[in-house]
Amino acid sequence: MQQINLRTLHSLKDYTNPELKLLASVAPARPFRTGDHLCREGEFGSSAFLIAIGRVAVTCTTPEGSRVLATLDAGAIVGQMALIDHAPRTASVVAVEPTVALELTREVFEQQLRASSPLALRFQEQIAIAGIRQLRIATKRLVQLRTQPIQPSGPTERQRSQWMTLQASLTDWDVDPATPVQDPAPANSGAPSRNP
Amino acid sequence: MSVAHLALLGTLPLAHELAEADRAALLAVLRPRELVAGEVLFHQGDQGDTLVLVGRGLLEVSRVDAGVRTELGTLGIGAMAGEMALLDPEPRAATVMAAHDSLVFELGRIGLHRLRATCPAASTVLVGEVIRIVTARLRQMDERITQELEPDPSRRAPPRSNRPVTSTFTRLWARLAGE
């Protein structure tokens, strides 16, 4: 496995050296080959992943087939809702190149939180910020979609697709909180709307 | 520190799960502020990074779009405003005004950083409450989209957002919220 340097990861830039050391000791590094799943939609998960090396795609099943919601690089945190909620994964995460990810389980996270570890407090705040940004992006997109109201006869195919893409992105707010917030794609674009 | 403020804080759902010492640590970073009816706490578009917790009275939330003012709702005792700006500053999305004479507790980013150092337990409860609020809003949005696509409830797929509350601190937040 390649040498991991947590210090270079943007999402950990505010972490102190002792916090990084603690993170490395409580969250073991796991290697994934291209095409390997870190987690699968529909399965119950109990851990979050920090991408240390490589790149992953977040995908979700829609009536039109599998959709890529986001592609995330080293530094991204995915699956963190599993630290909060005991619920099926709302998306799959697949390695699109050889990847190493640190795996943090709910058990360890709660233990660290109960012990008021600064690491857990930072992580908790990052989870909150990820949700806040997700909500802001989704709200802007909702306002855009509302400019083309759905007729009483029902949504057009394109409208159904746009609304369902927004809905799919909502239930998975496992986005990297360090990624700058971007305006979503215009409402008339059929392409997946999530930031890269 | 005011004994009256500490007693008032203790009656709010957010503080229910906090030990007396943790409440005092929380109050130490809060700024109590008296508002008279009609006084504006902040305007839509203002830069801000403070959270507001209603201790007494009632706040009114409104927004102006294309010259049209819409009342979005009111915030009563124990409710919060600005919780997203506290963690991730952005211009205020709405105007918040005192509907009656009110007392609010304000918390800024510096206060939150101090709280993290002086009383991590209170900071965990506070950030946990923000996560709970944000998660609930995401679920509401999910349900609204389902309604938009299928106005007939009998033909809607069951909500995907119906998640059981199991983890220790999720239960704690649920209790804090009085659910």
Give the helices and strands, then pairings.
The complex is a heterodimer of chains A (196) and B (179).
Chain A: H1 17-26, E1 29-32, E2 37-39, E3 47-53, E4 55-62, E5 65-73, E6 77-78, E7 92-95, E8 99-105, H2 106-114, H3 118-146, H4 157-170
Helix pairs in contact in A: 2-3, 3-4
Chain B: H1 3-11, H2 20-29, E1 31-35, E2 40-42, E3 51-56, E4 59-65, E5 68-75, E6 80-81, H3 83-87, E7 95-98, E8 102-107, H4 109-118, H5 120-149, H6 168-176
Antiparallel strand pairs in B: 1-8, 2-7, 3-6, 3-8, 4-5, 4-7
Helix pairs in contact in B: 1-2, 4-5, 5-6
Textual characterization of the structure:
The complex is a heterodimer of chains A (196) and B (179). Helices cover 32% and strands 22% of the residues of chain A. Chain A is of the alpha+beta class and 196 residues long. Chain A has one domain: Jelly Rolls, CATH 2.60.120.10. In chain A, strand 4 (55-62) and strand 5 form a beta hairpin. Residues 176-196 of chain A have low confidence and may be disordered. Chain B is an alpha+beta fold and 179 residues long. Chain B contains six helices and eight strands, in the order H-H-E-E-E-E-E-E-H-E-E-H-H-H. Chain B has a four-stranded antiparallel β-sheet. Chain B has a four-stranded antiparallel β-sheet with strand order 2-7-4-5, with no helix packed on it. In chain B, a hairpin with a 2-residue loop joins strand 4 and strand 5 (68-75). The two termini of chain B are 31 Å apart. Residues 160-179 of chain B have low confidence and may be disordered. Classes of the chains: A alpha+beta (196), B alpha+beta (179). The A-B interface holds A 83-87, 90, 106, 110, 113, 116, 118, 120-121, 124-125, 127-129, 131-136, 138-139, 142, 150, 155, 160, 163-164, 166-167, 170-171, 173 and B 84, 87-88, 90, 116, 120-121, 123-124, 127-128, 130-131, 134-135, 137-138, 141-142, 145-146, 148-149, 160-161, 163-170.
